[in-house]
Fold this protein.
Amino acid sequence: MPQFRPARKKKLGSYPHTMVVFSITLALLVIGLFGLLLVHAHKLSQAVRENLEVQVYLERNLPETQLLALQRSFAQKPYVAYRGSEPQVRFMSKEEGAQEFVQLTGEDFQQFLGDNPLRDAYILKINAEYADVSQLRQVSADLRRQPGVFEVTSVEESFISDVNRNLRRVSLVLLGFALLLTVVVVILINNTIRLALFSQRFLIRSMQLVGATSWFIQRPFLRRATWQGIVGGVLAGLMLLALLQWSYLEVTEIRLLRDERLIGAVLLTLVVLGGVIGFFSSYRAVRKYLRMSLDDLY
C-alpha cells in the first residue's frame, strides 16, 4: 500500500524568503548605484571648484625672508585649499614663468626684449567654499592688502558664474531623480512583501480565531521581514563594492573621485533602509489581513 506522507505544518511567518530577499537586493542595488553616482558627482563638483586658482604677483626684488613670510601668511588663510595637511600654495619665480610661456607659445620673448619683464608669483588654490564671484572678490581684496603684493588675478567672473550655475542644475536634477527613485524602491519592496504575505493570510486568520494577540501574530513576520531587508541591503552593498572595484580598474581616473566616508554612508544607508522598509511593509500588510473579514480573504 502506498504510504502517505503527512503534510508539513505551516509555521507562522515562514513564507518563502528567497524571492523576497532577491527582490529587495535588486531594488536597493538600483538606489545604491544612484547614491554612488551622487557621491562621485559631489566629489567632481568639489574638485572643479578647488581647481580654481588665484595668481598673486609680487613686487620686484623682495628679500627671501619676506617671500617666506608671505608664503606662511598665505598658508594660514581660510580660503586656501588643503590637500591632506599641505596648503595648496606654490611659488613660481619669474624664470619659471618665462619657461612656461615659451613652452606654451614656442616663442622666447626674452630674446626680443632683452629682459624678463615677468614677476615672481604665488599660485593659490582656493577652497571650494569660496568659489563664487562675491567670495573671490573678497579674497582678491584681502590678498592685495598684503605687503609686497603687486597684483592679484583670478579666473573671469563669467566663468565662475557658469560653473556654479551648471553644478547647481546638475545637483538638483540628480537629487530629484534620487528622491523619485527612493519612492519607487519603497513601493517595490512594499509590494514584494505584501505579495509574499498573501499566502499567509489564512494562517493569520486562524491564529486570530484561536485567541492569539495581534502582537503575537505580527512579531514573527516583522522579525523575518526586517532581517530580509537587512540581508538585502548587505548583499546590495557587496555587489556595489565589487562594481566599484571593477570600475576603478577599468577607468583609473575615477579613483580620484573616491570618498571612503560618503561611500560607507551610502552602504550603511542601504542596510538601514532595507530593514526599515521591510519592518513597516510587513507591519502594514499583516495589519491589513488582521482587519479583513473572512469573505475578503478569498
About this structure: The radius of gyration is 31 Å.
